[in-house]
Amino acid sequence: MQSALFTIINEEEDQFPEIETHLSFDPFLNYLKRKGENEISIKKNFLASVLKDFNQAFAKYGPLEKHNIHQFENEFRLIHASLNPVLQDDEDTYWALGFPLGQKICFGTDKFYALLEQYRCDNQLALAHDSVGFSEKIQMLYSFILERLYGIKSAKHFEIIHSFIDALTGLQKYYRINIDHTFVDVKVIGNLPVFDRIKVIDEFSKTLNFEIIKTLIPLNKIKMDGFSILTVTDITEQQALENIKNIIIRGIDEADSYGHVIMALRTLAGNPAIEFSLLPFFKLNNKVVFDFKEKKTSALLDLLKINKGSEQRIQELLDEFIKQPQILVFSKDFPIEDKTMSFLWERLKDLGIVNYALIPIAHNKEIVGVIEVFTKTDAVLDEQILARIFSASTLLAQLLKDEIVEFQTKINEVIKEKFTSLQSAVQWKFNQEAWEYLQRIEQDKPKPIVGDIKFEQIYPLYGAIDIRNSTIERNKAAFQDMIVQLELLENVLIQLKHLNSIVILDEMIFNCRRWLQEINEELMDSMQIQLNDFFNQNVAEVLTYFKENLKESHPIIAAYENAIHPLNGVVYKNRNVLEKSIRLINSGISGYLELFEKELQNSYPCYFEKFRSDGIEYDIYIGQSIAPDKKFNEIYLKNIRLWQLTSMAAIAKITHSLLDQMEKRLLTTQLIFVNATLIDINFRTDEHRFDVEGAYNIRYQIIKKRIDKVTIKGSNERLTQPGKIAIVYFTKREEKEYLGYIQYLQKSGSLLDDLEELELEELQGVKGLQALRIGINLA
């Protein structure tokens, strides 16, 4: 125990400067006098003895003042003895006496003073990073004043949580400081303010509005005498758990949340040398997968990355661990008898790990992940530390479960966006029908029929970006590759004949030469089937015979098989070059259309579906029935039509810019079909896609399928041409609308000044088609 004046809050940070405070024993001594009057036991003599000691001290040293505090150390000890259990070890507690409000202390346990000096090695301490702000402290103060002067009680207490960085560990330490004002008298300078207590109490209890009370009771009219009792409790473990809980409440998307959790676990362990990793068990097709993109300090992930040869073995160990979860602890000081676990431990030691623990985390009795606890130094990893870590398992289980849910949500979003026709714009309709379907299900009866998903009276928009002459280019590439394969095969058969001259080889060589003479690029579609039968059946049988019966033939046949490998064989060179160029074009188009779709959805919800072939075509449906909660206006239709035309020009520029990256240079054509009338669409459950409904609406689908080959009336020239956009329509109204869009885009520099107004040849069952064709500024 020691007595020394220690300022806890710097003068410039004093949050209650208007209050007059005075250190005094009077409230305590008055309490002892009242207590002594009612005592008849041995306590009465003790209280009288204490009072006598204080009177003698006053007679000797005068009233208690700042300058003579150290002379009252014996009296301070008496106060401590009076207020604490006799058998309590003083040096195990943080306890002190201070001025009213606890701004300065004058006596306390050695442990209390050591705590203060540990973080500020002089005679004052600025309590930074406290858990409550200025207004909160004012509220606590006024709660105390109201209780003492007016008997209005509040739940507010002088209790503050402070955090410090431990000088030895570099980790956060948390302490709860409780300031007890039992022996503080509150007095008013002048007259006690009078107000409607019932009204104030009612208002205060409902809203805790201290602004009203601040106007009624100015702090400069308040005086406090006595001393406060300060007790400090180390709550580092509880606060670390509270920090993890707060991270969970904020959600896993909170920036740096994982790092904060790891820091909280280190604080819980109390040792910065202990490392942690939280690994959720993401399930994909009933198998556990790990996200290697996450930059986590994980021993298990490092093992899986480094030990590729042992990856399956480690995966098997994890599968077994999930079936029979248990806490695994490895240490260099304890040998592992289990050979299976010994294998894992040896791999961990290769990473420089000295101590390791793997703790399973369960959520509702289901294993959702693990927490790794390990050290790369001789830092202690004992049962006490592991128990503290395990105390956070319930919170960590929720955190891991949230990550698993987020993972599954992302997977479902990708599936929905990339692989199915169901989109957010129409999701509500499916949700509604699913709910109605569930309501119709009755026990022990056949399941009801799923209702139709139908959208009526909507506007369709169609666009197509086609690769010019793709069929011709495919036939040309296949023709060139087939010639290479026939020449290679002829050479292989001749080499095999030198090894074993069987008659069947002469026939095979003859067929190769016959095919080389007969093969025709223009007839490649029909001939390719016959050639494939020849290669896959006749040739395959002969080569299999030689491989099984003549070892010398193996190098010859192996060289041929390498040449006909679909991915990198020379026989597929021209087809692979063509496919690579097509994929490059389609990837560029798809990437732009995804951005295009996002812009559309921001304007008005619509259904957007694209189809990939040699190029990409797409349908857009927009109308009131797709978004019944948002009023539709034709301005949305005009907006989307302009967007569509703008996007076609942009896509043409993109595909043109890719020419230098293509081994096989391919050009694209751009086509838009404008349908003047509303249509209905219905979801086909067998095909999992939308299609038009009704005889009249089917006409729209027929036109879409045929206009890509339509020619200009009176000529053989196809409407669609590279570097141009073709807009097909029926009525003058649509023509006028698009002429306005074209003029706008010409002025902006996207389109050229070469507009053509064209009549088109009749299609089967379709008359009266007209078109606008305009060049694109590809520069």
Features:
779 residues; alpha+beta; six-stranded antiparallel β-sheet; 23 helices
Written overview of the protein:
The chain has 779 residues and is an alpha+beta fold. Helix content is 47%, strand content 19%. The N and C termini lie far apart (86 Å).
Q: What structural category characterises the helix and strand content?
A: alpha+beta
Distance between the termini: 86 Å
Count of separate DSSP helical elements: 23
The major sheet is characterized as: 9 strands, mixed
What is the alpha-carbon Rg in Å? 43 Å
Give the strand content. Answer: 15-25%
The tally of beta strands, per DSSP, is 24
Overall, the morphology is elongated
Kindly state the mean pLDDT as a whole number? 83
Helix percentage range:
40-55%
Uncertain residue segments: 10-14, 121-134
